[in-house]
Amino acid sequence: MGVVDTGAAEPRTSLHHPLDPLSSEEVTSAVAITRADGRFREVAAHTRFVSVSLHEPAKESVLAGGVSPREAFIILLDRARETTYELVVSLTSQSVASWREVRGIQPAFLMSEEVACEQAVKNDPRFLEAMSKRGLTDLSDVIIDPVPAGNFGYPDEEGLRLARATAYLRRSPDDNWWAHPIGGVVALVDLHKMQVLNVEDRGVVPIPPESGNYDVASAAPPRSDLKALEITQPDGPSFTVRGWQVEWQRWHIHVGFTPREGLVLHTVGYEDGGRVRPILYRAAVSEMVVPYGDPSRSHYFRSFFDAGENGIGASANSLTRGCDCLGEIYYFDAALADDVGELVELPHAICMHEEDYGVLWRHSDWRTDRTEVRRSRRLVISSFSTIGNYDYGFFWYFYQDGTIQFEVKLTGILQMGAISSDEIPQHGTLVAPGLNAMYHQHYFNLRLDMDIDGTANSVYEVHSESVPPGPENPFGNAFVARRTLLSTEQEARQLIDPLAARSWEIVNPAVQNGLGRPVAYRLIPGDNVVPFAQPDSAVIKRAGFITSHLWVTPYTPGERYAAGDYPSQHPGGAGLPEYVAADRAIDNTDVVVWYTFGHHHIPRPEDWPIMPAAYAGFLLKPFGFFDRNPSLDVPPPTACHNSCHE
Ligand code: NI
């Protein structure tokens, strides 16, 4: 469990919160129970563990405060029968509670498949011939990068578990090999049989020669004019931690972690008037997709569903190997299982700390010569995942004024292709000689199970508009803010409209604030974009969730993922488009708000060889949830008394 680095943590008790992620002991136990089951023993020789995670108890039971049985949800991949099993394992009764076969889908990629796939490609005579044409006879420094094959409706690919693999050259042991794509060659691999089905060679392209290394030695000499900047918290942090439960500045947050979604937040509430008022029951990244805009045969298939195809949590970094946070830090440790069911401990999977965030509020009155100023402090709960070439930071921020912010930090290495020296890229940016960084977008969908002061909520579209000239607007200056109830799922499919200042309001119609208005939070978009892929393209079929920014559904336990349970090689239509097909009513019910946002990435030379972090996200801001500024009681900054006042 979490490492107590700060003294702020109380000893963890053996009593679980029903939403605590599985502990190391529980992961081990769930695997042992599975291995002992007769159904598993029959298929064990050719069956791999895809994931082992908490099977969350029913929402009603958690909200009622009852004791829930501890259960694990396990996905198994049977490579001989080419099928998938979903298990619920009861840790309480030490038995497999349910065993379900799911046919015709592909669960997430396994690390062992990536390793075996590399070897299979390197052993294939057609691939060897393609490398030999490029002067590469020793393949020890050739790196194979297999990615899920997508689904383009090719009849001969139907039903197969496939990867498309491209190759890179590593010029030295620590080389950034992403900088040296071996162009023109794509291998198609059957991952169950581990057979190379074909190798396409579209002709030799010179391997981009420039070094893409970014370590200290490569960037030497380092600049020497940076003075020390230290964050000291002599009294320790202001948060308290009990197991996975966090309290900070009136906020109550239960932290969680799953192999698929990574960081999860549960039962987020704000203490107000002596009670904790619920805001969110559950929040997590439900899916990601990164569609690339290059139509060439070497690249058209690139559209990575990093949650469903790889696992954000399964790809999470242990921050023992480098954490970007300053100050007093608390870490949560995660427990996962590898392909053969062995426990994988991920120490420091989640980082939590506080940050000074400039001015919270201030005003100067020249008549009295008085200034009241308060500094803003925020609680940061974050995790970093490396998925292929990219590194994604997932950051939740909690503010003293009741605001919640979600932000993704995008960094790492660009996905690049080799082009000949006389070619001008049409769908990418030349970032180094012969190196084309392809245009792409990064989409994230956040599933937000909103519970504003209770489960029955409604969602309104809100925007502003000018009043036409006339008796209602005699001076031409008038504008109004319009609120429109979204009463069905189809009405709630919406796009952002920054020119009309569109946001969405989640209200509890049954609870009024002190001004007689229903209490509410607003979802305020940040930067966003629409897809440029065609509506009938493979990626849009599979990632229908990116065609609307807002989706609202009535809470349904099985509806968890924006592109469906198993997006890998899926023909399309799953997830949100399927969930909302019945156009269910969403008024005054337990609503789930799904927000899709995209980061549009036209790469810059400055993103090479490693990309300075880009940011994307949104805000959840109280809008009449409180009767007035809830941060009036934040005390004046003591540091300012020492240094600001002469
Ligand atoms: Ni990008």
**CATH domain fold name of the largest domain:** Beta-galactosidase, Chain A, domain 5
Helix content: 10-25%
User: pLDDT below 50 for ≥5 consecutive residues: which ranges?
Assistant: 1-14
What is the number of helices?
A: 10
Total beta strands = 30
Structure description:
Helix content is 11%, strand content 41%. The chain is mainly β and 646 residues long. It folds into three domains: 10-102, Roll (Nuclear Transport Factor 2, Chain: A); 111-201, Nuclear Transport Factor 2, Chain: A (Roll); 240-413 and 440-601 and 610-645, Beta-galactosidase, Chain A, domain 5 (Distorted Sandwich). The protein has a 19-stranded antiparallel β-sheet that branches. Strands 1-2-3-4 form a four-stranded antiparallel β-sheet. A four-stranded antiparallel β-sheet has the order 5-6-7-8, covered by helices on one side. The two termini are 48 Å apart. The site of nickel (II) ion has 4 residues, from β23. Nickel (II) ion (NI) is lined by residues 410, 440, 442, 601.
Q: Can I get a quick summary?
A:
With 646 residues, the protein is mainly beta.
Structural descriptors:
mainly beta; Nuclear Transport Factor 2, Chain: A; Beta-galactosidase, Chain A, domain 5; 3 domains; 19-stranded antiparallel beta sheet; 30 strands; binds nickel (II) ion
